[in-house]
């Protein structure tokens, strides 16, 4: 079975500061890794994903994450955050079992960007 | 495309009442999912479906039922509402062989 641990439940930062949201996973099989973002009172949206290939993946709004197989991590980073990045971020691990695709989500990290 | 739509957006139930949460997607996705989200707990999978007529339990199925008679619709049924079912419910879908799940806007349910 897979599991995901997001090490910080809340991360407050100032605008234009760098941020790192940590995610570790466990799995006995090959995994896909995802970061989803949830803005207040909305559903989840895919931010970025790692399926294979380059271990560094990027989103269109400046976030990046690096898959580290030896450390079983997929930390999310942004060098300079904006107020609009305030949201809850979920790390998720996916595998294919018996022909279906299922995700296991972490508990989420609330990022608050203060002016 | 409207994507994944959910109704209602909000609902208050009394203990013991029943209701159906509706989920519809217009993207012709085979896979559909129901999650519940509780504060600080992330998302837990309730039920999922890999196609019309095929459903299976997720991590937290007790107290819920689902059906999938069409590709588009995947309703979630609560037969005897309990306070423990107070939560935000999200429906999601994905095409086969793909990896990204597309989420609806959610239904906020309160059971008093």
How would you characterize this protein structure?
- The complex is a heterodimer of chains A (115) and B (112).
- Chain A has 115 residues and is mostly beta strands.
- Chain A is built from no helices and 12 strands.
- Chain A is globular and about 45 Å long.
- Chain B is mostly beta strands and 112 residues long.
- Chain B has no helices and 11 strands.
- In chain B, the strands form 2 sheets. In chain B, strands 2, 4, 5, 6, 9, 10 and 11 form a 7-stranded mixed sheet that branches. Chain B has a 4-stranded antiparallel sheet with strand order 1-3-8-7, with no helix packed on it.
- In chain B, a hairpin with a 7-residue loop joins β9 (87-94) and β10.
- Chain B is globular and about 40 Å long.
- Chain B starts with a strand and ends with a strand.
Structural class of chain A: mainly beta
What about the largest sheet of chain B? Answer: 7 strands, mixed
Low-confidence spans of chain B: none
| Alpha-beta classification of chain B | mainly beta
| Nearest-integer average pLDDT of chain A | 91
Q: What is the string of helix and strand elements of chain A?
A: EEEEEEEEEEEE
Structural Rg of chain B: 13 Å
């Amino acid at each position: 079975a897979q599991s995901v641990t997001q090490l910080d439940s809340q991360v407050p930062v100032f605008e234009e500061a760098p941020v790192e949201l940590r995610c570790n996973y466990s799995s006995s099989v090959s995994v896909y890794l995802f970061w989803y973002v949830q803005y207040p009172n909305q559903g989840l949206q895919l931010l970025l994903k790692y399926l294979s290939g380059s271990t560094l993946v990027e989103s269109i709004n400046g976030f990046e994450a690096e898959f580290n197989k030896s450390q079983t991590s997929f930390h999310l980073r942004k060098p300079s955050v904006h107020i609009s990045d305030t949201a809850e971020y979920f790390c998720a691990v996916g595998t294919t079992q018996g022909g279906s695709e299922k995700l296991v989500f972490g508990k989420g990290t609330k990022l608050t960007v203060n002016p | 495309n409207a994507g994944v739509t959910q109704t209602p957006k909000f609902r208050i139930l009394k203990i013991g009442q029943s209701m159906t949460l509706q989920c519809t997607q217009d993207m012709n996705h085979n896979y559909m999912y129901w999650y519940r989200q509780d504060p600080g707990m992330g998302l837990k999978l309730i039920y999922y479906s890999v196609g019309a007529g095929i459903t299976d339990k997720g991590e937290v199925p007790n107290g819920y039922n689902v059906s999938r008679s069409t590709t588009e619709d995947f309703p979630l049924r609560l037969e005897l509402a309990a306070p423990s079912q107070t939560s935000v419910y999200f429906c999601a879908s994905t095409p086969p062989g793909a990896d990204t799940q597309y989420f609806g806007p959610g239904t906020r349910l309160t059971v008093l």
